[in-house]
Amino acid sequence: MQTFNEKTVVITGGGGGIGGATSRRFGRQGARVAVFDLNPEAAEKVAAQIRAEGGQAEAFRCDITDRASVDAAVAATLERFGPIDVLVNNAGWDVFKPFTKTEPAQWDKLIAINLTGALHMHHAVLPGMAARKAGRIVNIASDAARVGSSGEAVYAACKGGLVAFSKTIAREHARHGITVNVVCPGPTDTALFADYKEGAGNPEKLMEAFTRSIPLGRIGQPDDLPGAILFFASDDAAYVTGQVLSVSGGLTMNG
Ligand SMILES: NC(=O)c1ccc[n+]([C@@H]2O[C@H](COP(=O)([O-])OP(=O)(O)OC[C@H]3O[C@@H](n4cnc5c(N)ncnc54)[C@H](O)[C@@H]3O)[C@@H](O)[C@H]2O)c1
């Protein structure tokens, strides 16, 4: 696979589990990595790790639910690193409850982070990519979008929406040389998954059930995801757009 020398990569939620692993992988492959996160300390920690390994990275505080914050972080990235070649929409959040036990205020927050946030990012970054007739967008959805997941109804609706949105943007912007693809993690050992286990009430039983039902016999680790994400972001994927790939140990097998 190519390196990402001279490529500017933006990753939202870059301070988190999957976002951190992906940021570090891009950093090792020579990219200029803009680590966007609501949590500036988490983003700075990841950026500092990349720099300590000899890579180029900068942390930017960005709340993807707030368009002004998105515009400010994108402008700061353009100034620091130049035009954005790759956008990875990875930031996400969940609440784990049966749908009838959730409140509309929680739906609003889930939709703002998991769907509207990605729309803001696309809206801010796409015009520059279209003008340069080049770009790679990788959206991180979830297997919940493909097969549903108890306790995650609104989150699953957002991720399903993100899949449909990605396919539409892939069609609208193919003529600009921009590809848009989706990676769907399965259960992956991060802070978000720790909350899921808590919400389930009996974490040990849940882990046992997942381990039994995942053909490859374990839940995912953050480092299981960057390979698929970097592939979609690479020149090797130039003829691949509007596709959805599960990285979930075979938990879901989609045709
Ligand atoms: N871990 C899993 O089991 C799993 C499964 C399926 C999909 N996913 C998806 O993978 C992606 C990464 O999740 P993770 O498991 O690494 O979670 P994580 O909690 O480790 O990381 C999420 C990051 O997003 C950031 N974030 C939250 N709200 C934000 C906002 N408004 N603006 C900017 N940043 C914000 C958080 O600060 C955090 O650093 C998410 O989109 C998640 O939905 C995770």
From TrEMBL:
<dbReference type="InterPro" id="IPR036291">
    <property type="entry name" value="NAD(P)-bd_dom_sf"/>
</dbReference>
<dbReference type="Pfam" id="PF13561">
    <property type="entry name" value="adh_short_C2"/>
</dbReference>
<dbReference type="InterPro" id="IPR057326">
    <property type="entry name" value="KR_dom"/>
</dbReference>
<feature type="domain" description="Ketoreductase">
    <location>
        <begin position="7"/>
        <end position="190"/>
    </location>
</feature>
<keyword id="KW-0560">Oxidoreductase</keyword>
<dbReference type="InterPro" id="IPR017619">
    <property type="entry name" value="OH-benzo_CoA_DH_BadH"/>
</dbReference>
<dbReference type="InterPro" id="IPR020904">
    <property type="entry name" value="Sc_DH/Rdtase_CS"/>
</dbReference>
<comment type="similarity">
    <text>Belongs to the short-chain dehydrogenases/reductases (SDR) family.</text>
</comment>
<dbReference type="InterPro" id="IPR002347">
    <property type="entry name" value="SDR_fam"/>
</dbReference>
<protein>
    <submittedName>
        <fullName>2-hydroxycyclohexanecarboxyl-CoA dehydrogenase</fullName>
    </submittedName>
</protein>
